Amino acid sequence: MDITEKKPVTIISASILNSDLSDLRTTVRRVDTSGAEWLHFDVMDGNFVENITFGSSVLHAVKPYSGAFCDVHLMVELPQRQIDLFAEAGADNITFHIESKCDPDRMIEEIHSLGMRAGIAVKPETDISSVMPYIGKADMILVMTVEPGYGGQGFIPGTLSKIKAVRDAAPYIDIEVDGGINNMTAKLVKDAGANVLVAGTYLFRADDMHEAVEALRKA
Ligand code: DX5
Ligand code: ZN
Q1: Which fold has domain 11-211?
Q2: Which of 4, 36, 119, 166 meets the CB 3.0–4.6 Å disulfide criterion with 95?
């Protein structure tokens, strides 16, 4: 087999966290026409992080209006409780945090058994060695490039070495980055080995979201 066939392709995942939450139907349609392949859904419980956002019922409500792959990022203390709910709501991927209270092997198994992809996220301060045992089991590693909790924060350059460490260990795994991604930082994270780029503020502030998506893709 041609080895290049397995090389991860660039995927843009639009985070709706800082979009106009009063009009989510328009938001998800806008993402669909922008060329972004994934819709990134930030779930926060007020425990794992201070902020509280939205749960599976909101994904269920917008799912009929979106043709995008639904990329759920659980920033919750007890992610196991959310798997069935998000599967029923139409999630295509569930990413949970290695710092949350869960058995990662069991999480991956359950997510897979419901036909979804499984990702593991790691906060900026957490040692990257914590996720290494799950490479080969999880479909994706999410290297947080800001502290989870809020959109619109500045990219943390110290996270680049973590992306490189995962890419060196796993040439073909999907590596997602999340937080402070724009046309400048996209180049840095791609050079380090990331291929799934989450962007919220940069995309939703753009006059032309399609152009902004292409700028990230070509960075
Ligand atoms: C932060 C969230 C991110 C956030 C990214 O906790 O996980 O997905 O929405 O937003 P920007 O692109 O604004 O940094
Ligand atoms: Zn996120």
Answers
A1: TIM Barrel (3.20.20)
A2: 119
